[in-house]
Amino acid sequence: MPSSPVREVKKPPSRDIVMTIADYLECDLTEGNRLLMTAHHDPIQPYRSGEALATFVQVARKVMQFVPLPVYTINRDWDVLDVNECLLAVASIARAEYEAIPAEMRNVIQMMFDPRSPVYHLLYLDHERWRCFAQRNIYGFKVQNAYCERESWYIEQVARWWE
Questions:
Q1: In the 3-class helix/strand/coil scheme, how is the chain assigned residue by residue?
Q2: Which of 86, 65, 88, 84 is nearest to 73 (CA)?
Q3: Which of 143, 134, 130 is closest to 161 using CA atoms?
C-alpha cells in the first residue's frame, strides 16, 4: 500500500487560532509548541534555567545598581532572585537580612499572603491597596504563564501557595 504524500498546508491558521486549539486540547507547553511549529509559527520560548539564568541574573544585578527606583528580578515562578539597594532602603531591610530570608519565602505571591514574610507588613498597610496589589500580581503571574498552566512546575508552584 503506497503512502500518501505529505502536503504542505497552504494557508496555516493564525497563531491565536493555534493557541486556542492548544488550549482546547489542554496541551502542555511542548505539545503547544509542536502545534505552533507545524503551523509555521515561532514556538513559545522556554524559560531560562541553569547557567543561562545565572548569567541573566548577573547582568540584571549590574543594571539594577544604576536604577534609582526599587527594583527586583524574578524568575518564571516569581521567586525573587535579587533586589537593588533602593528596594532594600524602602523596605528598611539590610542586605544581610534579605539574604537571610529562606529561599522558599522569597516569592512575590508568597510574600503578599504570608504574615511571616519580612515585607508583608510593608505590603499590608491598607486592606484595599493590598487587595489591588495582590490581584494585580496574581493576574500578572497568570498572564505571564498563560500557556504553562498544565506544566508540572506551574501546578507545583500554585499548590505550594495553597499550603
A1: CCCCCCCCCCCCCCHHHHHHHHHHCCCCHHHHHHHHHHCCCCCCCCCCCHHHHHHHHHHHHHHHCCCCCCCEEECCCCEEEEECHHHHHHHCCCHHHHHHCCHHHCEHHHHHHCCCCCCHHHHCCCHHHHHHHHHHHHHHHHHHCHHHCCCHHHHHHHHHHHC
A2: 84
A3: 134
8 Å CB contact between 18 and 39? yes
Amino acid at 21: I
Q: How far apart are CA 123 and CA 19, in angstroms?
A: 36
Residues 60-115: pLDDT tens digits?
999 998 999 999 999 888 999 999 999 999 888 899 988 988 888 899 998 888 88
Is the whole-model pTM more than 0.85? no
The residue extents of the domains of the chain are: 12-46, 50-162
- Give the integer Cα–Cα distance in Å for 68 and 154: 33
